[in-house]
């Protein structure tokens, strides 16, 4: 099945995640809406009670920033990535609008759903996705490089709204992702992934 890098932002790049409740609600949606029989509405805040069978995608990575999110998924059914994006977007927008007494769209109309190509950049894609939170402490790091890679690495290990912790064997939201599939696809393991990630941070030179 195909692998896709998914990215969506708030309208006009506005903030869409304000506090722990918002982040937690979106994360719950990643779990609950990943089911062929999933409905868009749910009330039970304990998202671990939903069976894992009948998933429409395997989530390999996820990362939530204040005004956007990234996902790396492998489809289990044709069109699974598009359907999953629609579900999580509609579900979170409904929650957000009710909580904030607003109406209308929250995310940009068309999420970017990019097929992942196995080229020279393939192995670095996970690093790119899970390094996004560094922007919160070094806003211009993608343009100017990281000033302090050690501080950046420590910050990533304190950032709960990402799959990075689970990928380096720090239990966070392990139920959401398929760790074994991630390590198989990228031919790595928790120790090697962390070592390679930290080396990449020390030498990263992203195109402007």
TrEMBL record:
Q: Which Pfam families match?
A: Y1_Tnp (PF01797)
The protein's superkingdom reads: Bacteria
The UniProt entry's GO biological process terms, in alphabetical order, are:
DNA transposition
Which positions fall inside the Transposase IS200-like domain?
3-132
Q: Could you give a GO molecular-function term held by this entry?
A: transposase activity
- Which InterPro entries is this protein grouped with? Transposase_17, Transposase_17_sf
- Know the name of this protein? Transposase IS200-like domain-containing protein
The taxonomic lineage of its organism, from the top, reads: Bacteria, Candidatus Yanofskyibacteriota
